[in-house]
Amino acid sequence: MANLTKQKRDQMIAFLEELKKEHSDDTSVRAFNEIVNHLNDKKYGLVFEEHTEAVDKLLSENIPVFCEDNNRRICRNKNAPWNFLIEGDNLQALYLLEKTHLGKISCIYIDPPYNTGARDWKYNNDYVEKTDLFRHSKWLSMMQTRLKIARRLMNPNDSVLMISIDDNELCSVKMLLEELFADCEMQILDIVINPKGKARIGRLSQVDEYLIIVFMGNAKTISDKSLEEGEEIRWPYLRRSDVESARGTTKGGVRQFYPIYVDKDAQKIVKIGNPLTPEQPLSDAEVIENAIAVFPIREDGKHMNWGLTSESLKYALDNGCVRITKSTNPYQEYNFAYVTMPSIKKALSGEYLIAGEREDGTKIIILPDGKEHQKPTVWKKNSYDANAYGTKLISKFLIEKRFSFPKSLYTVYDSLKIYLENKPDAIILDFFAGSGTTMHAVHLLNAEDGGNRKCIIVTNNEVSDKEEQELTAKGLKKGDAEWEALGIATYVTWPRVKCCIEGKDINGNYVDGDYGVKSEDFIADNDAQFVSKKTGRVVRGTVYKKTKVQLYPSLAKIKMRDGFNENLKYFKCDWTPRKPEDYLLSNALCLHIKEMIELQNAIEVDGEKNVLLLNRDDIKRNILDPVMYEKAENIWLNQNIILNAEEIKLLDKKGFKYIPREFFGQELREAAE
Known about the structure:
By secondary structure, the protein is α/β, with parallel strands linked by helices. Strand 25 (about 635), helix 19 and strand 26 (about 655-660) form a beta-alpha-beta unit.
């Protein structure tokens, strides 16, 4: 079928060509060509008007640089890599990250402003109102500029981009990503973050938001190993029920009628006693203080055998494979369920999956079904509740509410884990850091598995709409100390990250609790006892009981008060003129090389182990001094320093590196230096 639009466009272009013949002056020809270009612009995809930002003009006239705030340095482990919190415009920071991390980022997780029109974000220092006719194009223009750089930062062979978004810009950002990442696969996750729902008058109550994942290169998600996705093995009842297993019978000549001692207070097995002969009374069993001797006796009083020998039961107990429940049987105060010996061996060998532990210390063992389970594209867990595990969790550290609508820590944790679980040395970037949840989640991942993942987060220091109005009413302006003290980086991101690393709140008190999350669920009790309505007798069967289940058994072992074994540097974005009039640009940029090397290598240039040589004095102090030379392990050298043979020999022995030209080489060439 004919493309009618193309036919009309061709007719219009043909008409313009005829007009060119009659109006051949340069001004008319340029105008005609511009019209033709617009007619030939793409006709499918996302079309929006591009806008400039205030930072664009600053970038054209200045070079971004990083300056460290030494008062906000946190070192918990000298041998661990460093993380970075960068305060400044994220486009300014991305400009520099492109010099240090080109093609090196494993995962980018961002939670950009949702552009709801409720004064939730600024463009060129003004809030974008819902009535702004260019609201969507301003947002897309802002995102496009940053996502283009983000793509260049990502590892082209194996990396992911994750964007958290709601329905306001979901479709438009998806189309933008289709253009910028045309060669990549994408998926959209639907995550329930507000079970109670966000009321919208005359509209459906919103309970969810979305996570767009872009897979670059060979990037893959990790198969799910959670209990929800597998079937737990059966735990048989320990007391035998068949006639052939009554007391007095043996298995391989071994008697299996013996006492199991349960502590009255802790309700835990404290000892497994010796077997009794068929003739011995129960009173012959050893008496243990504060413990109850439990024998395998049916509800009708008949003595039976246990299903395991005392040695096998001890082995199962030592491996967390014996479960205790209270009994209504007047002859047997406790019931015991266990994992069979073959199943224990399969679990310990890895053939079966040990998915975690219950509160009583028993293992959760999952049966394999011959295929991997992938997480679904719809996520619903109590732990994703943004109020309970975002707002309230942050309040444990910051005491008061300082940030509106923070992400649940576990939403970000689970999102990152589906890709980063088997990448212990990954580099994660979040350039819309907000309250700092991404860094908190990365620290939690490292604490769980001992990883060395590095995290870089970027946030500006804007104040909220309400705070801006109050500060303005006082006659204050941006840049004033009182104004800056209430900015998001200073007032929220930094204290949240600092507190979670140190395990203390902003008042210096240790934070109680752990990182586990309990959720109510119905759990099958295969050994339950109840009275039959038909016979009136006590029988055993399966009953589903509502109980609290630990969603993150491994995280429940991590105490908040212990903090994290992490290091952090705090950088601020600054500017230096591209063409200074009264000093050399190279001298000015040398003052900021240290931060670039630290960021690129996740280290601290301490002048001893990691050394930066900018001039002859540095050579004398760190290379020619035998004591300092012995300490040096990594050395970066200014290429402009002229070295003698002895110095070259000493540097070669240490395997020195030149300061990378990509840091500021282009800027120096433009300044003719």
